[in-house]
Every structure is written in C-alpha cells, then in structure tokens.
C-alpha cells in the first residue's frame, strides 16, 4: 500500500519568505489546479461534509479545535493563506508583505499591509483596516478569552493609515508571524461594539467576508451555510454547504458509502475500511500525508505524572507498533515527535521507542512505586491510577484504550476509561486541562513554520491563566528560551538546530507519549472539483471557496 505524501520540505528560500526576505507574486500561487475557474459562474448545488466532531465555536478567536475551523474557513478570510506547497497567497490583503515589495523592512520590524478595497462583510458593511486593527487588538485584550496571543504580543504602534492600509512595528523580529497571520481570521469591529466580546451575539451568528454566509445550526446534527453572492474572490461555486455531525466513525463511513454525505472529512475514513472504500464506485479515496500526530497526552499537573520514571514506564508499556498494525492496518507510521517527517525541521535522530513490560516494571520498582493488595502501585499516598478520555464513538481510539488498559495493568497502573461527546470532550475539559490523560491527534505547527509556542511555552497553558494550547501544562525553562530564540532567527539551518534540540527535550521529558504520525484517508464523491489536501492547514475545508460540481 503506497502512501501519497504532500511535500512539506522547507528550503532556505521558503523559510526566508516567512520573514519577507524573498519575492512573492500578488496572485495566489499554485491554486490554478485547485478548482478556481477562469471565469466566475453562478453557484449551483450543495455539498454535504461529514465531520465526526461537532463544530461549536464560531468566533475564530475563542479557544477552539481544528473541527471548528471547518466553519471558520467558509465564513471568514485571513489577510493571506498558505497553499499545499507552503507558499503564501493574498486574500484580504492585495499582496503578501515581503522585504522586496516594501511590506516588511529588512530588519523585520516594520510592517505595512495594503488591503483590497472591494470587500464587504456579510451584512453589507465595508471591510477596512479598522477591522484588521480591531482583530489583532482583540487577540491581545486581557479581558478576552483569546485562543492565541503568540506573535501578536510583539506588535506595537498599530496604525490605520487609510481604509486600505495598516502599519505596525514589531518589538523584535519574529519569524513565524507571517504564518500566524495566515491563520488569523479577520472579524468585524462593528459586530463587537458595546458588548462583551466573550458573550457577543456574533459568537453564535458569525458575520464574515468569506465565500459562505451563516444560515442556521441544528445543535447536535448539522450546520448550514449559503453562498455569499458578493464574495470578492473566485467562488463560491456552491449554493449551499451542509456540515453534518456524525460522531460514530462507522456510521460516517456508511453514510459516505451510501451517498448521504459527499465528503468524508475529519476524522476521515478509518483504516479498517480503506480496502473496501478504495473500490467504491463513484468515489475518490486516497491516503495522504498529514501533520497531525496521535499521542497519549498527560496532564502534567496531576501528581501521578510528575515523576519522569512514571512517564517513561508508561511509554515502555505502550506497544505502538502493535496498535498500528492491529488496529490501523499499518497505515500510519510510528513517531517519536510532534514534528511531521516531511518538515525541514524534523529530527530523525531521536531515541527509538522500545516496548518492554519488563523495563517498565523495573523502572517503577526502582522509583519506589509499590504494588498494593489489588496490584496497583502507590507512592507517598499517590495511587498510580488515572482516567483516560477521548471522543465517544471513535471506535479505533476506544480499542486503543482497551489495549492500553490491559498493558498498563501489567505494570501495576490502573487506567479507567471515561469518554465524552466531542462538544464536551474538546471544550473546557480539554482546553482548561480538566482531564487526567487523553488520546488525541494534534497539529502543533502554524502552517509550514516550526514554531510551537502555542503548545509548549509555559505561558500558553490556559489552565494557568495563559492563552494557548499547552493543555498538558508543560513547563520547561529551556524549551521556553529555545522557542523564543527560534522565533527570532531567520537562517533555516540555525533554526533547525534549535527545533532539533526542542524535539530532543520533548522526547526526554515525555509530557505526552507520541504514537504515530497521521496518514489520513479522505474521500469525496466523483465530480466534486477543487477538493485538495493541504498539510499546511488543519482542516479539509481550507479552500471550500473553490469547490464545485463538474
């Protein structure tokens, strides 16, 4: 079985582009083959997209997960985005700012963005630079539950020069900022006037500039979006998009098979159905590379996990190759890191995992974790027992849990399974680190950039009052300093050394236990043009503006 992989390598030129040191065309590069038509045509038909998790966060700047971005990409636009080859292309901006076009100063400190003058919000209000200023300031508002402050905290002197021009300075060079802006959806200033942004009506009835407008939501079932006839760019080519919530992975596949859904999106077709799925008449099914990695994530604030010997023992007792072979049909590849192997910054020299119940038991014995009468270990009043959670209805993860439960029992560890509906699982339970442990798939990168400050910086733990995705509440001062250093470097070889070292530390500390890098199996109905996997974005609908029926 061959695995189709989208190239994710970042050479010197592409990395310098992150700081604007290389030239950039003003037209969206590389998108001609992704479904854009040469001439605009009237929208027709609808597409039903199946997701196994329910989108519930519609303000793109509140804490959210990737499935919510399935809606964000349809309703909103960033200033610019990134294509499957890692190239940036303009959306709300007229061009991607670079050193060559004068958008960024040679030292990386002064920025100027020129905006389109033909964009309107879905309610008819003109889009201006005031909206860009408001969006960046909202993300930094200490009273707002911002999902990301990384990068934006370096912005100073944000100035609206005219309705179509905005400038700012950075307090220091920050290499990932272009990639961060490419995943920062612009929201309308006027929708938040006079209201608490955490409770604004906008949060449940979003207004964007995107190719599709919010129509309605049937909670627990589906969301309907309709074409925006005033969209400034190519598209939309569909009259309507229905995002259908199907929590059971087998049911999601069955509905794809029967034609009830047109696209099998997140969490895609499971590997146990691949052999049948690729033979389905009238369907396109393929394996593609993906930047997500699956892990057993640990809440490092729990006393059970504070000792390194415990985390090491759990990793020894995790038979990842058996899980991949028996449950995932060998489709994904085992990994020791969060960094996708397609990345220029991937570290191939990390210690290889070894499955050994004997070594796990020896570690715990040596560390003084003593078995009780029931066989479960205890030390200093702490019982080596914890809950493990994931999305209810994900049958493969549920089987992984049972597999782990038995293995951990052999080393005197009690793991209790406690699964939750997606809307609960990935809400405050996940974002505020209310769990003991979780089986989860994550993409820690921002587009093609290797910066992971949102996930590994100690100040990015929401459970500690920070803004970010450090849900394992990881705290390592050396990693904090390396993340700061890596963000200020421009030379890719110098950056590589920094991110290699971060991966070494993460592999040694084991705040999470990496299992495999994803190789996912999306499927869509023949005749749907424009669908394209993008390893630099987190969701299949990243370019839904260009989807259409042939």
If you had to describe this structure to a student in words, what would you say it looks like?
This protein is an alpha+beta fold. The chain folds into 2 domains: 226 residues, Dipeptide-binding Protein, domain 1 (Alpha-Beta Complex), CATH 3.90.76; 231 residues, Dipeptide-binding Protein, domain 3. The protein is built from 15 helices and 23 strands. A hairpin with a 2-residue loop joins strand 5 and strand 6. The two termini are 30 Å apart.
What is the secondary structure topology, with strand pairs?
Blueprint lengths: L11 H6 L28 E6 L14 H10 L4 E3 L5 E3 L19 E5 L14 H12 L14 E8 L2 E6 L6 H5 L30 E7 L3 E6 L12 E6 L3 H10 L4 E2 L9 H4 L5 E3 L2 E11 L9 H9 L3 H8 L5 E2 L22 H10 L3 E2 L5 E3 L2 E2 L1 E5 L5 H15 L4 E4 L4 H4 L2 H4 L5 E6 L10 H4 L20 H12 L3 H18 L2 E9 L2 E3 L2 E2 L18 E2 L1
Helix pairs in contact: 7-9, 14-15
């Amino acid at each position: 079985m061959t695995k189709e992989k989208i190239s994710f390598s970042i050479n010197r030129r592409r990395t310098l582009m992150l700081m604007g040191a290389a030239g950039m065309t003003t037209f969206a590069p590389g998108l001609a083959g992704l479904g854009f038509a040469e001439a605009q045509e009237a929208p027709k038909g609808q597409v039903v997209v199946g997701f196994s998790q329910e989108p519930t966060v519609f303000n793109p700047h509140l804490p959210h997960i990737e499935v919510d971005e399935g809606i964000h990409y349809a309703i909103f636009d960033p200033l610019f985005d990134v294509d499957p080859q890692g190239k940036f292309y303009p959306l709300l901006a007229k061009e991607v700012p670079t050193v060559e076009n004068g958008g960024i100063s040679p030292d990386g400190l002064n920025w100027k963005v020129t905006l389109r003058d033909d964009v309107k919000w879905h309610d008819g209000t003109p889009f201006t630079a005031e909206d860009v200023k408001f969006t960046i300031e909202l993300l930094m508002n200490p009273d707002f539950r911002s999902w990301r402050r990384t990068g934006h905290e370096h912005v100073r002197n944000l100035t609206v020069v005219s309705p179509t021009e905005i400038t700012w300075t950075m307090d220091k060079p920050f290499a990932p900022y272009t990639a961060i802006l490419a995943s920062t959806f612009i929201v309308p200033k006027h929708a938040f006037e006079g209201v608490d942004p955490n409770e604004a009506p906008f949060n449940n009835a979003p207004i964007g500039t995107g190719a599709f407008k919010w129509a309605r939501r049937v909670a627990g079932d589906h969301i309907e979006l309709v074409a925006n006839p005033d969209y400034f760019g190519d598209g939309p080519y569909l009259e309507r998009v229905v995002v259908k919530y199907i929590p059971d992975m087998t049911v999601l596949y069955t509905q794809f098979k029967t034609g009830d859904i047109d696209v099998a999106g997140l969490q895609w077709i499971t590997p146990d159905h691949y052999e049948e799925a690729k033979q389905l008449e009238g369907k396109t099914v393929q394996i593609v590379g993906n930047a997500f990695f699956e892990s057993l994530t640990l809440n490092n604030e729990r006393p059970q996990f504070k000792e390194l010997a415990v985390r090491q023992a759990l990793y020894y007792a995790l038979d990842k190759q058996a899980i991949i072979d028996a449950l995932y049909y060998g489709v994904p590849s085992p990994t020791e890191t969060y960094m996708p192997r397609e990345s220029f910054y991937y570290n191939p020299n990390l210690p290889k995992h070894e499955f050994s119940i004997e070594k796990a038991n020896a570690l715990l014995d040596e560390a003084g974790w003593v078995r009780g009468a029931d066989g479960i270990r205890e030390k200093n009043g702490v019982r080596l027992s914890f809950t493990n959670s994931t999305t209810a209805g994900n049958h493969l993860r549920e089987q992984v849990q049972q597999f782990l439960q038995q293995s951990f029992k052999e080393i005197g560890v009690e793991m209790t399974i406690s699964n939750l509906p997606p809307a609960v699982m990935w809400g405050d339970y996940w974002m505020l680190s209310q769990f003991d442990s979780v089986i989860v798939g994550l993409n820690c990168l921002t587009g093609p950039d290797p910066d992971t400050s949102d996930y590994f910086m100690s100040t990015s733990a929401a459970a500690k009052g920070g803004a970010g995705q450090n849900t394992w509440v990881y705290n390592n001062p050396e990693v904090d300093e390396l993340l700061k250093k890596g963000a200020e470097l421009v030379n890719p070889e110098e950056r590589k050394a920094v991110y290699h070292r971060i991966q070494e530390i993460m592999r040694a500390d084991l705040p999470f236990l990496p299992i495999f890098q994803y190789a996912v199996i999306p499927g869509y109905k023949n005749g749907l043009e424009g669908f394209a996997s993008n390893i630099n974005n987190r969701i299949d609908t990243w370019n839904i503006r260009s989807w259409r029926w042939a």
